Each structure stands twice: as structure tokens, then as C-alpha cells.
């Protein structure tokens, strides 16, 4: 699937299962507006992410998060549509700041609806896990997925995550219904 492989920290172009191409690159200054738009569209498209349209921050808020990448507090990799320049997928890891938790990184990921089901989510996940394996501070990866998000849970299991537990009715959807969160983790340390 990879058309052109540069080195791990450089952008690369990936050809997806339907023939479209995306540019994969790490977050960079100036991305705040693009991240804001990506989250706005993703948040309105699915009940399975925590970000509700009303929770979306400003482009400036996301710009300030991008700046944390340089401070080694946050990893963020985006897939860019080469035709429009829009972010169509993102995979991030947040690094815990407290000393006793600083070996763990928390995953967040999403792909915009028009780009789902053609391998982008799996590709980004594999690449991001590979990048975490080269980070000497990180030994554990973790995430939560909403009960019923079977595509996502299957993707995580195929990547090596295992179910570690469940938070009962920890999510309340806007319609008032409750949903469990499934806790998943993966040990990548020695
Ligand atoms: C979950 C998500 C990140 C997966 O990304 P993706 O690019 O669609 O994933 P892939 O194309 O790599 O496919 C992953 C698996 O899900 C399946 N899948 C994904 N979208 C699908 C769809 N719309 N219909 C049917 N199957 C789908 C694929 O068939 C694949 O399974 P396989 O490996 O057995 O073939 C993406 O669908 C998404 O952003 N969903 C909404 C937000 C979300 O749920 N984020 C995760 C929160 S924990």
C-alpha cells in the first residue's frame, strides 16, 4: 500500500485501497484550523467519539495543542487529502505528565466518513505504534473504545491491543442513553 517510504519522521505518501492517496505527516505549526475542521466533521458524523460538536474548541485551542508536539507531550500524525489539503484522518498519543504514569501513552484516532473502510485507520495505527516503539520513555499504550464500536475494537485487537476492563455506563449520549467504555491496552516495553 505504501507508495513512497521516506524515513520515519518525514512525510510519506500512502495509496489507499480505493486508489486515492494521502500525505501522512506529523502535526506542524499552522495546523490548528485544519484540526478544528477535521474534528468538527468527525464529531458530527459518529456517536462513537467523545468529542461532541458543542465541545469543539477554537482553531487557536488546537494550534496550542500542536505546539505541545515539540515539547514531547503529544504525538499527532495526520493524513492529508492531496487534492484539498484537508485533514481526513488523525492518530494521536497523549503522554502522561505525572512521573508514575509517564511510561504510558493514550491513543485517539479517527478517519472522516468519506475515507473510512479503505485501510487508512489501520495504516495510521500501525505506523503510530511503530513510532511509539522507538520512544524509550513509552512502555504501555492504552485507549478506550465505546461498546458497540466494533470496527474500531476489531482494528485495535488486530494491532495487538487487549481488553483490560470496562467502565459501566460511563458515557451518556445526547439522547440520554448510557453506554459502556471498553478499556484496552498494549505492553510495548521489555
Ligand atoms: C474506527 C476508524 C478509525 C477506522 O478507520 P478506517 O480507516 O475506517 O479503518 P480501516 O479501513 O483500516 O478498517 C478497519 C476495519 O474496520 C472495517 N471498517 C471500517 N469502516 C467500515 C465501514 N464503514 N463499513 C464496514 N467496515 C468498515 C474494515 O473492514 C476493517 O476491518 P478488516 O480489517 O476486517 O477489513 C474509523 O472508522 C473512524 O474514524 N470511525 C469513527 C470515529 C471512531 O470510531 N474513532 C475511534 C474511537 S475509539
Write up this protein.
The chain is α+β, with helices and mostly antiparallel strands and 190 residues long. The protein has one domain: 3-Layer(aba) Sandwich (Aminopeptidase). It contains four helices and nine strands. It has helices at 32-45, 59-69, 120-133, 150-159; strands spanning 2-4, 12-15, 21-26, 74-81, 87-95, 104-111, 140-146, 162-172, 178-187. The protein has a nine-stranded mixed sheet, with helices on both faces. A hairpin with a 5-residue loop joins strand 2 and strand 3 (21-26). Helix 1 packs across helix 2. It starts with a strand and ends with a strand. Coenzyme A (COA) is lined by residues 46, 48-49, 109-111, 116-122, 145, 149, 151-152, 154-155.
Alpha plus pi helix count: 4
What would you give as the CATH superfamily? Answer: Gcn5-related N-acetyltransferase (GNAT)
- As for the CATH topology, it is Aminopeptidase
What amount of the residues lies in strands? 25-35%
The helix-and-strand class reads alpha+beta
Which kinds of small molecule does this entry bind, naming each only once?
A: coenzyme A
Count of distinct strands: 9
Q: What is the CATH level 1 assignment? A: Alpha Beta
Rg, Cα atoms, Å:
16 Å
Amino acid at each position: 500500500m505504501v507508495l513512497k517510504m521516506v524515513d520515519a519522521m518525514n512525510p510519506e505518501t500512502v495509496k489507499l485501497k480505493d486508489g486515492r492517496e494521502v500525505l501522512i505527516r506529523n502535526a506542524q505549526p499552522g495546523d490548528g484550523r485544519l484540526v478544528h475542521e477535521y474534528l468538527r466533521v468527525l464529531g458530527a458524523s459518529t456517536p462513537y467519539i467523545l468529542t461532541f460538536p458543542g465541545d469543539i474548541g477554537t482553531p487557536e485551542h488546537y494550534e496550542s495543542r500542536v505546539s505541545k508536539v515539540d515539547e514531547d507531550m503529544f504525538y499527532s500524525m495526520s493524513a492529508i487529502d492531496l487534492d484539498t489539503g484537508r485533514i481526513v484522518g488523525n492518530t494521536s498519543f497523549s503522554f502522561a505528565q505525572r512521573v508514575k504514569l509517564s511510561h504510558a501513552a493514550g491513543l485517539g484516532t479517527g478517519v472522516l466518513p468519506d475515507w473510512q473502510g479503505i485501510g487508512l485507520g489501520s495504516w495510521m495505527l500501525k505506523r503510530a505504534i511503530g513510532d511509539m516503539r522507538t520512544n524509550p520513555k513509552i512502555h504501555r499504550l492504552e485507549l478506550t473504545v465505546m461498546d458497540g464500536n466494533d470496527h474500531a475494537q476489531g482494528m485495535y485487537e488486530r494491532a495487538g491491543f487487549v481488553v483490560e476492563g470496562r467502565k459501566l455506563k460511563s458515557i451518556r449520549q445526547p439522547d440520554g442513553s448510557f453506554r459502556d467504555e471498553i478499556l484496552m491496552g498494549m505492553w510495548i516495553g521489555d
